[in-house]
Amino acid sequence: MASGNPYAAELAAAKKAVTLAAKLCQTVQQDIMHSGVQAKADKSPVTVADYGSQILVGFSLKMDVSSGPFSLVAEEALDELRKDGAEEILEDITDLVNETIFDDGSYNISFTKEGILSAIDDGKSEGGPSGRHWVLDPIDGTKGFLRGDQYAIALALLDEGKVVLGVLACPNLPLSSINNINGNSSGDKVGALFSATIGCGAQVESLDGSPPQKISVCSIDNPVNASFFESYESAHSMHDLTRSIAEKLGVQAPPVRIDSQAKYGALARGDGAIYLRFPHKGYREKIWDHAGGSIVVTEAGGIVTDAAGKDLDFSKGRFLDLDTGIIATNKELMPSLLKAVQEAIKETNQAASLL
Ligand SMILES: Nc1ncnc2c1ncn2[C@@H]1O[C@H](COP(=O)(O)OS(=O)(=O)O)[C@@H](OP(=O)(O)O)[C@H]1O
Ligand SMILES: [Mg+2]
Ligand SMILES: [Mg+2]
Ligand SMILES: [Mg+2]
């Protein structure tokens, strides 16, 4: 741990919390066909592992970070668990959480069903511009998780409205490079834990505890040599708009489509040069989908902005209030990326107005 990091204790607690949650997620992903999956009001999926991960991260942080009141802004809520027929899911979550805690051995506690409900409810903080708030996506990329692909346990700390710390546990991401994802014949280990604290840089280590390695974004300055990441799900980002942006830049490589904030981690260590995210009209971005990932990228020397080139503002509550989309790249490519984004959006809007 670098000395002089004012958030060193919080960083250690955050890494421990997401590593514990990753164990639970890995157990469930191996046996996903037998796990409870529900559809939320917005039709997105939620599994026993989303709830279990949220409970373990919240609990572990509460045990290990003592200073001040505890505030957690987390994705999952009690709504679906209050529905008829959810009793069995609640039992499964309780068993899963208790088994993970027992197997891990760090804490001597067993949750009751009431304790489980109350622990999920702990994540309903609204965040905001003052004080400290933990921000958690217990499984980012739940669709990827269900497919057996990429997902991340994404945790960040807001202090006076600014993200000061972020960790991303990516259990299915190769430790050295995304390029080892298929078949992994390189012998690259799987399971990466990215972390960053403000002013102290970004690191990656293995989920089973190899020493952290400093990471930085790639130094490509000619977009022709760049590759770009985007959502796997076309429902989450407009792939036709990103194609047009890439064409304007002269990007030659096909898009690298992976789920979750693993994209931010991969970008931060230079596996690719650009991240493009353009949700369909009307979608409001949530802070837990970007807080952890964005500080990992900025501390690795990159830039993360909205489509107008403005910094992301995490101080407005549970939602990000931003213009159109989110883009990330290195300092060299950002000016030409921003220009291409704005031209492509203008053309799309003009075409839509002719319909
Ligand atoms: N309609 C729509 N538009 C844009 N974004 C949406 C939409 N629906 C969901 N989400 C959010 O996308 C999160 C995962 O998106 P990713 O791009 O990281 O992964 S993916 O490749 O699209 O699966 C995903 O995070 P999780 O719910 O944590 O999995 C959602 O918060
Ligand atoms: Mg979700
Ligand atoms: Mg998410
Ligand atoms: Mg999630």
UniProtKB/TrEMBL annotation:
Functional description taken from the UniProt entry: Converts adenosine 3'-phosphate 5'-phosphosulfate (PAPS) to adenosine 5'-phosphosulfate (APS) and 3'(2')-phosphoadenosine 5'-phosphate (PAP) to AMP.
GO biological process: inositol phosphate metabolic process; phosphatidylinositol phosphate biosynthetic process; sulfur compound metabolic process
UniProt xrefs under PROSITE patterns: IMP_1, IMP_2
Catalytic activity reported: adenosine 2',5'-bisphosphate + H2O = AMP + phosphate; 3'-phosphoadenylyl sulfate + H2O = adenosine 5'-phosphosulfate + phosphate; adenosine 3',5'-bisphosphate + H2O = AMP + phosphate
Organism: Zea mays
Stored NCBIfam families: bisphos_HAL2
Keyword check for Nucleus: no
Annotated EC: 3.1.3.7
Family named by the database record: Belongs to the inositol monophosphatase superfamily.
A single MF term (Gene Ontology): metal ion binding
Alphabetized SUPFAM superfamilies for the sequence: Carbohydrate phosphatase
CDD domains: PAP_phosphatase
Protein name, entry field: 3'(2'),5'-bisphosphate nucleotidase
Residues in coiled coil: none
Cofactor requirements of the protein: Mg(2+)
Enzyme superclass (EC): hydrolase
Family matches, as Pfam families: Inositol_P
Sorted UniProt keywords: Hydrolase, Magnesium, Metal-binding
Source organism phylogeny: Eukaryota, Viridiplantae, Streptophyta, Embryophyta, Tracheophyta
Positions annotated to bind Mg(2+): 75, 137, 139-140, 289
